[in-house]
Amino acid sequence: MSNENDLRTRLVPAICTQCGGQVEVDPTQEAAVCKYCGTPFIVEKAIQNYSIQNAKIEHVDTVNINTKGTAESFFGFLGEQMSESREVRREERREQRALDRETQKMFMKIFGYMMIGMFVLAAIMFIVQVIRGDSGEELPAEQETYIEEPAETPGANAS
Ligand SMILES: [Zn+2]
Fold first, then answer.
1. How far apart are CA 2 and CA 6, in angstroms?
2. Ligand 1 centre distance from Cα of residue 51 (Å)
């Protein structure tokens, strides 16, 4: 094991707490920025990550620590990236579903407004028909004019 003075000046291997990429850090620094994902991380945690990963590998195979370590961190990184993209795709699907729901809701709203509009239109037509029916008996000749311009009642009275 290296002495304290040596440790102070040397970079030590660490694992990025964000992406799992293997980086070298200055243990005297509190934080560092990952060269893979650009995320700042706590140096102590990253070193801890590295030792945990290495301890695991050592437990599995003490002979091929380095090769296995590299492969494992590579596959770990790859796996993490893959699960990340899976997560992204899931997120996209979720958004798409939410969007579809929103579109459906909007369509239902428009449909509802159309129904209300048609109902109002029908009600207006019914009222117009009732009014026309009332005055129609008195002014059968002015019926057409009356429907198109219901505001011109004085004109209808004049003739
Ligand atoms: Zn990283």
1. 6
2. 16
